[in-house]
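Comment thread on ticket #2218

A.B. wrote:
> Attaching the input chain for the structure job we discussed in standup.
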Amino acid sequence: MNPLNFHFKKPDADLVDFVYAFSALTNVTEIDKGIIIPNGKIDLMLCKTKDNTWEVLLMGLETKAKEMPHNDFEVFYCISFTPLSLEYILKVSIAEILNTAKKLPVDFWELEMNDFDDFCNKATAKIRSLIPRKIDERKRQLFRFIFEKDGQINVKELSEKIGWSERQINRYFNQKLGISLKSYCTIVRFQASLPYIKQGKLAPQFDHFTDQSHFIKEIKKLSGVSPKELFKNENDRFLQFLVYSEK
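C.D. wrote:
> Ran it. Output below, let me know if you need it in another format.
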């Protein structure tokens, strides 16, 4: 069996409002019963099959854990976008593909690449060319606050900070992402807990969790397993665990 080969790279500073990371995974066909867990990002996947054909997939948000579907993909290249990119880079809503994916034209963005570094360079250039001159600063600050607070912020606080009504914020999330702000923040908190769980810190690290029982319940709701089982990560089946490190 060939080992998984994982690559991960953060974006340049001028892209951080739109891109969380670039990544790649090879020998994907060796994965047995991999589990996908919610990550709060919008993943654009370029997938190469064993017979050298390509597929391009836009992933909707995941709100629960699910098994990776069986496929003949050998390599994944991925751009993990932040929600702000939906309006300003991708120019789409993903509300209709919650917990699923949409196939895009195989020549989408024409990102032909030779290796991971080439992929990152070409994707960076393409994204940079699409960033508009004018961006609604309320929306930029909206997501900055959510990520800086690890999802520990409510709609009232956000409304006061960015000068946008609670109703407008909630409508924006439902229209663009297909879930409420509250649900999205729950996913962000879950993600922020993963680096600690990976290190074996199986108690709540954030004020949002009222007690150990609440912590276990929320982790199990989004990962399908308890924090203890997630920490064990038997057979490396929780693939997204590869990318997390403590702040």
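A.B. wrote:
> Thanks. Noting for the ticket: The mean pLDDT is 89.
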